[in-house]
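FAQ: What does the model actually see?

It sees only this:
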Amino acid sequence: MALSCSRLCSRLSLTRLSGLSTSRITNGFYVQDVSCQSRLPLCRHYTSSKVRRGIGRYVSSRLQWANAKYEGFLKGDFPRFFLLYHTFVEGFKVLFQDARDVKRIKTKMLVNGVKFHNLQYREMEKLRQFRRDLIKAIPLVVISIPPFANYLVFLLMYFFPRQLLIPHFWTPRQQLEFRRLYHSYRTQHHQPVLRELEYASHQIKNSHLQGLLKNLCTKVQSGGNPKVSEVLAVKSLFSGAPLAINTMSNNQMRHISALLFLTPRLPGFLIGRRLNSHALELFQLDRALSRLGPHQLSESELRQACYVRGMNADSLGTNQSREWLSQWLQVSSALKESEVSLLLHCIVLLSANYPSAPSHR
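And it is asked to produce this:
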């Protein structure tokens, strides 16, 4: 009896250790594999998630391999198309990053109650540029909505990149070329702005200030660069008639709109409102840039800051660009909001002849 009991106990122990038995009755006893059944769902879950991760890594690696082979094929056999393809891919990456940055800034403004003029310079510039890019991109998106219209859109984008694409999708060569072309359009309005400014000087009753403004116009028209002190000497004239934004002639407003790449084909009161809005935005950007310090800007940021204010810095050295931007900020920091009309005229006064003639502060 003792022998049979010990034999049965040893059999049960071996069965539990080996985990080979299933739920069944053996020799009158109920034997169940507890360890395997209790761990089976966990094993299945762990195994399936591990398999999914493995499949995901495999698919991702194969896609990366196929993309690398495709890019290598384009680069070797179609180098021009590869440049276009690479520019588009990188452009979309930058665009999506800009969209995330704008969302973060907007959330910060909404949650924390931060006003636009209290933002940091780079945040202000990001919002300003993204808004302009979005306005330009909307017509292209609308055209691409009908079925199969995307093929037409792609052709239009290929043949008219300057008119249809935002700078994210321009090649480095196109950026230089288009910026130079746009700046040449802007310089065509330098002399008309100076002529209108000189014509407006005849309406100024203060003979001393009238003489200072005429001398300033004559100096720029003859190829000279005015001093900061010469520009600031007439700043009070730009807070009232006839040089404040809401009192300027329609011709003057249209020429200044072209300096900011705004359409001049609008009624005068709408042009005035847009000019005032852009002038105040530029004024606030200058305040934020002064807080940051121009020396904190990278070379690309420095060129962009100069370009927004009327100077194409692609042909200038870094030191010349910083010097010009410092002069601009000296003028801007001495102005009041009511005198922002002078800031718009400085697009011509400070940049028309720089750096062809010596400039002194």
